[in-house]
Amino acid sequence: EDPKKLAEFQAKIDAEIKIEPKDWMPEGYRQNLIRQISQHAHSEVIGMQPEGNWVSRAPSLRSKKILMAKIQDEGGHGLYLYCAAETLGVSRDQYLQWLHEGKAKYASVFNYPSPTWADMGAIGWLVDGAAIVNQVSLQRTSYGPYSRAMVRICMEESFHQRQGYEIMDRMMNGNEAQRKMAQDSLDRWWWPSLMMFGPHDSDSAHSSQSMKWKIKRESNDDLRQQFIDKTVPQAELIGLKIPDPNLKFNEETGHYETSDIDWDEFWNVIKGNGPCNKKRLDHHKKAHNDGAWVREAAAAYGLKQKNKLQT
Ligand code: 3HC
């Protein structure tokens, strides 16, 4: 690639000027965004499944309406993100094909099951809580369409985090069985939530280039620490115990210290061997195939409208 163009590109990044779809960009920058944004979009959409499991069994009409609205938001986030990813010159069909072929990843956390109602609380509170920390940082990403999608998504995500925390709070104010159910759910979702931020910075293949290009603004470990510092006091406030015997607050640094993550589990889930990987992907493929007639009908209608305008 032309060194002059590369230098001009980096100067724009350094000056905090957003890169827009028609601007010149290095091929590596484009490819990195194609990878990250599409994986982010897939995560939003696959993430609807663990919660979809509870729509028909929500304990009240109020909780059912809130859960449905939340899941619908996730679908919407996926759509904004697919649109942002399409500006990089790859079609949505192609992105979905990569997902179905196992070539594109999605967040590992969605490969865990959601067997109890408390999981609706833990997912909103922890998984969306972790997503917010990451996405607030990505509002300042250097690629314009991605950054703008993040602004809207973050506003909705904060409602999701609160609805999850509210469920946990109500359960902790309930009877012994409900408190146990909430604690069990935290025990199962705590570590997968910490894994959402990706491997340690030292093991993160893409981080250094992504930081240079300001695709990522903060490192995996820094964002994870922010999430831990924010979430531990929230757990304590409602009487939940973080499942980590080594958790302690370091007065000098002002941060919580934790045990290390089980990285074998993390890579194993990413490789496709988590408890629900196959189920999630099979479900997505089936829903996609079942929806083929909707896409065909929409395309036929679009063509009809276009012909009408021309006559
Ligand atoms: N789950 C699955 N794969 C992960 C992962 C995770 N938690 N963390 C890292 N990986 C993968 C990376 O994608 C990469 O694989 P690849 O080269 O095949 O693409 C590999 O592990 C190495 O990791 P890196 O740290 O080098 O990768 P990144 O620099 O891309 O950092 C990231 C990983 C922090 C997840 C970054 O991609 C990112 O910030 N992505 C945007 C945020 C996102 O995707 N969030 C999804 C979850 S939240 C959500 O969408 C739903 C919410 O509304 C509930």
From TrEMBL:
Q: What is its EC number?
A: 1.14.13.149
Biological process, per Gene Ontology? phenylacetate catabolic process
Protein name as catalogued: 1,2-phenylacetyl-CoA epoxidase, subunit A
Key word ATP-binding present: no
Q: Which GO terms describe its molecular function?
A: phenylacetyl-CoA 1,2-epoxidase activity
User: Is the keyword Electron transport assigned to this protein?
Assistant: no
The species this protein belongs to is Parvicella tangerina
Organism domain of life = Bacteria
Q: Which GO terms describe its cellular component?
A: cytosol
Keywords, alphabetical: Oxidoreductase
Q: What class of enzyme is it?
A: oxidoreductase
Report the InterPro entries cross-referenced here. Answer: Aromatic_CoA_ox/epox, Ferritin-like, Ferritin-like_SF, PaaA, PaaA_PaaC
